[in-house]
Amino acid sequence: MTAGILHSGQARGDWVELSAAGSWTAEYASAIEPQVEAATRGITARGVAININRIEYLDTYGAWLIERTMRQWAKEGREARLVGLREDFRGLFEKVHAGTQTLSAPPPRTNSIVATLVSVGMTMSAVAADLHLFVQMLGSLIAAFGRVIRHPTTFRFTSTIHQLERVGWRAVPIILLITVLIGAILAQQGIFHFRKFGADIYVIDMVGVLVLREVGVLIVCIMVAGRSGSSYTAELGAMRMREEVDALRTMGFDPVEVLILPRIIALVIAVPTLTFLGSMAALYGGGLVAWLYGGIAPEVFLTRLREAVTMSTFEVGLIKAPFMALVIGVVACVEGLQVQGSAESLGEQTTNSVVKSIFLVIVLDGVFAMFFASIGM
Amino acid sequence: MAGNGKAPIIEVRDLVVDLKGHRILNGVTLDVYRGEILGFVGASGAGKSVLTRTIVGLLPKQQGRIDVFGVDLDHAGEVQRQEIERRWGILFQQGALFSSLTVGENVEFPIREYLDVSDRLMTEIAITKLEMVGLKPDVYRKYPSELSGGMIKRVALARALALDPEILFLDEPTSGLDPISAGDFDQLILTLQRTSAMAVFMVTHDLDSLHTICDRIAVLGEGKILEAGTMDAMLRSQHPWLKAYFHGARARVLHAVAKN
Fold first, then answer.
1. If we measure between CA atoms, which residue out of A267, A259, A273, A280 comes closest to residue A215?
2. Cα(A19)–Cα(A6) distance, rounded to whole angstroms?
3. B159 CB near a chain A CB, below 8 Å?
4. Which of A59, A129, A232, B75 has its CA 20 to 30 A from that of B110?
5. Which residues of A touch B164 (CB under 8 A)?
6. Are residues A304 and A173 part of one domain?
7. In whole angstroms, what is the distance from residue B77 CA to residue B82 CA?
8. Contact B129/A at CB under 8 A
9. B118 DSSP 8-state letter
């Protein structure tokens, strides 16, 4: 195959005839396009003809380039004519000729200040819509829970246990590993700095209070949001994309009751359990470092811990856990049900789910801190 | 058009494909000739899609040989293989449009990757292709999630045709379309095939399509090609499955219509 060529015209009276030859195909389109533009530029004649008799191969690309040129001439008020059209190319030319190419104008660009303001406004209303959806989901969850209480047989027990295994049992190793490390790091830092004042023993107070009140539950919640919240969002999102959620609804099932309630109940059970295990592991890690690095014997550590930590310190951490689990679960499910048709939207909602639930967990932690401070716990 | 003396564009020889320990294809031998529409039928689960996916290289084969454009795909280098992939277009059953790209970007995708053409020409070709498959240019800026099932199939066809392929693989192109749209789609494929003389390899269950546009029909069953030939040959065949398929209740109505 030889590349397509367009020979410039010979004038005949007020007509010019150009002749095309070679392969006018996709492969050579980039080489032909400038030729077509160059050959057709300086034409002043009233009528133009293209002789395509010598074209060997032709596809949509070649046909369109010829059609486009003819249209250009027609627009300039010249008479345009196609000469030597082979019978086997006729269908292709008719197809290409039938196209209108009328594309509606792209949406106009607004100036950047307006665009910024628009985006700020959109974000604010999106926050309000999010809050609305969150409360709505909480409401339908409570309603579904009420129904399940009244008719306990409708409760999806198997599903709940399955979810519990996924978000609770299988999370135990990684949670233990991370919290041991966090406890160890806290103790090491505490000893390193407190030693300057000769107050190394107080590291036990710090580790005890910090782990049981705050760090244990926060670390667990962040892990669960990243590990289980994201998978809830992705699962529900994929189910929505494939119309599984709609199928459930048309069969007379409430997706909240069937899909979401078991997941959230599983989280509400799993997170406090993991928090307890995580806190114990963190204390163990702290004790280990205090012994090996700080030279504080385990007996001393335990005695001091008993004095420093009260039952209420322990309770504060655990009371927060189910509420945080609820927040993570609800955010994950709301985001999952927001997924639109595209793969991109699935990714976006999963990211949103993790970011929002971690943010809300920390906000909630702040609210609890104020609450416990005011009731003196 | 049964390839009298013409060189086949796809040559499948003694193909064996296992899937998860099950032998799906067991010695498939099939030719597809330049410029023909080959209808490919078989019971659900007989391995029609498996054969298509194996030919285009999505599934590994255990034994056998596949030649496309006279090149053995096993021995084709990366560049040669890309060159072949540029010359075929595939329409997947569900369309398989990229959901995060607009319709226009979907059609332009192969053009952008394979050809070095100006943006203007690329847009114009994309719109031409969309209009060729019977869509309005307005869909150019829409996203696949905004389209109906039939429109998705058309866009997917436009994308399969973007590079003016020499072979077009269609996996159940008319499934899920109403009979009128399915008929239109058949005519569309026929027109496009006649204008560009490409080979069409069509997996289908649509007896209408087989009657109206296919030059040749190949039947897959028991892991082999049971029969390949024209519609008349299919109707004369004594194989029980073929008799059930082409002389069943649904087929009889068609024959009655065809005779009138």
1. A280
2. 6
3. no
4. B75
5. 25-26, 59-61
6. yes
7. 9
8. yes
9. -
Mean pLDDT across chain A: 88
Say whether both A212 and A329 belong to one domain.
yes
Transcribe B180-211 into DSSP letters.
HHHHHHHHHHHHHHHHHT-EEEEE---HHHHH
A33 with B118: Cβ contact below 8 A: yes
How far off is chain B from A80, nearest CA to CA, in Å? Answer: 20
- DSSP states of A182-211 as a string? HHHHHHHHHHHHHGGGT-GGGHHHHHHHHI
The segment with the largest mean pLDDT, out of A227-236, A335-344, B214-223, is: A227-236
B137 touches chain A (CB under 8 A): yes
Phi, psi of A213 (to 5 degrees): -80, -45
Of B132, B140, B143, the CB nearest to A95: B132
The number of distinct structural domains making up chain A is 2
Which residues does residue B37 pair with via DSSP β-bridges, in sequence order?
A: B200
Contact B137 A98 (CB under 8 A): no
**Which chain B positions have a beta carbon within 8 Å of A3's beta carbon?**
none
- pLDDT tens-digit readout, B91-101: 888 878 888 88
Nearest C-alpha neighbor of B143 from the set B155, B158, B159: B155
In a domain, A125, yes or no: no
ipTM: 0.77
Record: contact A88-B197, CB cut-off 8 A: yes
Q: Which domain holds residue A353?
A: 148-374
Q: What does the pLDDT average to over A222-230?
A: 95
Asked whether the predicted pLDDT for residue A222 surpasses 60, the reply is yes
Q: Are residues A168 and A300 in the same domain?
A: yes
Token pair belonging to A172: 């135990």
Chain Cα centroid distance, residue B187: 14
Chain B interface disruption, residue of A65, A89, A90, A103, most B CBs within 10 A: A103
**DSSP annotation of A77:** T
Tell whether A233 and A86 lie within a shared domain: no
Q: Does A61 contact B at CB distance below 8 Å? A: yes
Which CATH number belongs to the domain containing residue A91 in this structure?
3.30.750.24
**C-beta separation of B117 from B79 below 8 A:** no
Q: Chain A within 8 Å of B140 (Cβ-Cβ)?
A: yes
Longest dimension (CA), chain A: 113
